[in-house]
Amino acid sequence: MRSTNLSKALALAAVMAFAAGCGSKSTKTDSGAMGSDAAGGAAAYGSGTGSDVSGGSWADVANLRTVFYFDFDRSVVRQDGFSDLEAHARYLSRNPSASVRLEGHADERGTREYNMALGERRAQAVERLLIVNGANARQIETISYGEERPAVSGNHEGAWSQNRRVELKYVSR
Amino acid sequence: MVRAIVCAFVLTMSTWVSAQLVVEVTQGVDSQSPIAIVPFEWRGNQALDEDVARVVEQNLERTGFFKPLARENMLSFPTAQSQVFFRDWRMSSTDYLVIGRMESVAGDQVSLTFELYDVLKEQTIHAQQVSGSRTNLRDLAHYVSDILFEQLTGIKGAFSTRLAYVTAENLGPDRQRFRLQMSDWDGMRPRTLLESSEPILSPAWSFDGSRLAYVSFETSRPAIYIQHLATGQREQVQSFPGLNGAPAWSPDGNQLAIVLSKDGNPEIYVLNLSSRNLERITNNSAIDTEPFWAPDGRSLYFTSDRGGSPQIYKYNLNTRAVERVTFEGNYNAAGRLTQDGRFLAMVHRGSSRRFQIAVQDLQNGRLDILTNSDYDESPSIAPNGTIIIYATQQGSRGVLGAVSIDGRVRFNMPVPQGDVREPAWSPFLR
Questions:
Q1: Which positions 29-68 of A are in contact with B (Cβ < 8 Å)?
Q2: Rounded Cα–Cα distance for residues A4 and A43 (Å)
Q3: Sheet holding B355-361, edge to edge
Q4: What is the rounded CA–CA span in Å between residue A89 and residue A91?
């Protein structure tokens, strides 16, 4: 179990070192992080809950994923995002003054107001996961941008899949 | 500085003017009436800024009802009845002929005397003198177009109307400029009603045309605003946590149907603008959004995915009964009704997997797909029910398209800077 955590940490460190140079474009490179993270994600999911002495310092969340992706017309959080969301929730539960803003987004297909509602549901799905894992509702603000703020432009699944997302942003630590 | 502003202005204007307008006739031309709009005579010194006859000609052509005769095929350019030789116009297969004369009257006013002829019967159908400001000749042209259209079709013309729409421009990484714009129905004479670095969406006209409701994120959260067009004065409608979206006016102008998620889920509410009373309409764990009122005020239509995919439903405001209205295809949303309540325009995705504009005849359920590209959305219907304007894409850019309600004629509007989206056609303004 320890080696699983260690290898995951190493993988994450490598991914984040790669992403670090990209500044505000980190949302794009997160899809790369998602791929490598996904492989170890399921294993880490079972092991993460036991380590409850840690998780309260900023260093525990600073390098976690902050963008979570969704399938078309769906608002179910994919399993590969669970472990990182649990860690964010753990941090929030141990730092009651910390707060996050969850920004839900949709791809450009379909109507704007329907996509606004879809982005809202995605943000709410992430919010529920955070709350179930210990965060307080008062620490979480959700907002939907619908299809108004795409991360990537283009009429193809490659762009759409990166636009169907929730971005988790710390408002205060 | 001043020069820079002027240059920017000229650049914007020329972008509009130079954009090629292509009217695409998608079905046989047999049903279109051949008409000739002869250039109007101008009895004044300085040339006029607008070719009024040309504007009239373009207006009539875009309805799909008429096929104008090209000027180069006209055998003569009569401007008075004594110069009209009907035989010439019969030779060029023209059914209707319009001629006119313009002159300066008091101040900056100009008058236009025009006549509409039936070429086959060699009779005058209508003759009239109208006048208007020299600096707003397009107003005059649209007014004359309204008169001609009604004389020839029996349908009230909708050329003296306006469009509201939203533009978005990318200014750099994470920097965008959103504008709420208003223009003539044909996209000309655009002006800005609101500019913001945060999203603006869902403009909606009150039924009397005096106010626009829309959603703006300018406070970094979505809120609904009402803007009075005569004064520019605006007010924020009471705002709630979560979604505040999709405003739709009741026909009497006293209520606003809106979408809120304050109770945990996107639901439709009706806000009384005078009493501020808020009534919840839908109560369903699905997404309920995009409300719009039936013109008789008795029901609210909306989009819901309660059946597993987005479809349009009707809510009876008296009985509170909900019935599903659309059944064909796996995505039907953003509905709009014609003023007679008979035709439902919507975004439709069927077996082709493309998002297209379709019209459903609510009397017999028949669905017709009117457009032919992959990402058409935001249909808005002319107040006389003849044309639907919608958002579409040209290359990777958002532009406005228009299609006659029978799908017979389609064209894209002139293209300004940036992405254009969410057209909203005003009601009749006179």
A1: none
A2: 7
A3: B331-337, B343-349, B355-361, B367-369
A4: 5
Chain B contact for A7 (CB, 8 A cutoff): no
Look up the CATH number of the domain holding residue B278: 2.120.10.30
B7 domain residue, yes or no: no
Q: Which of A5, A97, A86 is nearest to A43 (CA)?
A: A5
* Residue among B266, B305, B374 minimizing CB distance to A120: B266
- Please name each of the domains of chain A with its CATH number: 2-172 (3.30.1330.60)
Residues listed for chain A: 173
Nearest to A149, CA basis, from B182, B258, B178, B401: B178
Q: What is the pTM of this model?
A: 0.85
Angstroms from B384 CA to nearest CA on chain A: 24
Taking CB atoms and an 8 Å limit, are A111 and B245 in contact across chains?
Answer: no
**Contact call for residues B331 and B349 (beta carbons, < 8 A):** yes
The Cα of B304 is separated from the nearest Cα of chain A by a number of Å equal to 9
Q: Which residue, B111, B129, B153, sits at the end of a domain?
A: B153
Q: Indicate yes or no: CB of B334 within 8 angstroms of CB of A146.
A: no
Find the CB nearest A113 among B176, B202, B374.
B202
Q: Among the three residues B114, B131, B153, which one is the final residue of a domain in this structure? A: B153
Judge if B115 and B259 occupy the same domain. no
Q: Tell me which residue in A109, A117, A155 faces B289 most closely, judged by beta carbons.
A: A117
Query: What is the complex's ipTM, to 2 decimals?
Result: 0.89
Place of tokens 């279109």: B32
A136 in contact with B, Cβ within 8 Å: no
Q: Give the Cα separation of B94 and B421 in Å (integer).
A: 38
Q: How far away is chain B from the Cα of A122, in angstroms, using its nearest Cα?
A: 11
Q: Do B355 and A109 touch (CB under 8 A)?
A: yes
Q: Does residue B121 share a domain with residue B76?
A: yes
Closest partner residue to B266 (CB to CB) among A73, A117, A142 is A117
CA-based nearest residue in chain A for residue B167: A148
Q: For residue range B315-344, what is the model confidence (pLDDT) as tens digits?
A: 999 999 999 999 999 999 999 999 999 999
- Say whether both B203 and B90 belong to one domain: no
Residue closest to B133 by CA, chosen among B100, B107, B102: B107
Could you tell me the residue range of the domain that residue B57 belongs to? 18-153
Tokens of A62: 């600073």
- Beta-carbon separation of B421 and A155 below 8 A: no
pLDDT in tens, A114-163: 999 999 999 999 999 999 999 999 999 999 999 999 999 888 999 999 99
**Residue B226, token pair as written in the block:** 């009402």
Per-residue pLDDT in tens (0 to 9) along chain B, 430 residues = 334 433 333 333 334 433 445 566 665 456 789 999 999 999 988 899 999 999 999 999 988 889 999 999 999 999 999 999 999 999 999 999 999 999 999 889 999 999 999 999 999 999 999 999 999 999 999 999 999 999 999 999 999 999 999 999 999 888 999 999 999 999 899 999 999 999 999 999 999 999 999 999 999 999 999 999 999 999 999 899 999 999 999 999 999 999 999 998 999 999 999 999 999 999 999 999 999 999 999 999 999 999 999 999 999 999 999 999 999 999 999 999 999 999 999 999 998 889 999 999 999 999 999 998 899 999 999 999 999 999 999 887 899 999 989 888 888 887 667 899 999 999 999 7
- Phi and psi for B406 in degrees, rounded to 5? -95, 5
Interface touch A110/B310, C-beta < 8 Å? yes
Whether residues B101 and B196 share a domain: the answer is no
| Residues B178, B111 within the same domain | no
Partner-chain residue, chosen from A109, A146, A153, that has the shortest CB–CB distance to B375:
A109
Do B140 and B252 lie in one domain? The reply is: no
Task: Determine whether the interchain pair B261/A117 forms a contact, defined as Cβ–Cβ distance below 8 Å.
Answer: yes
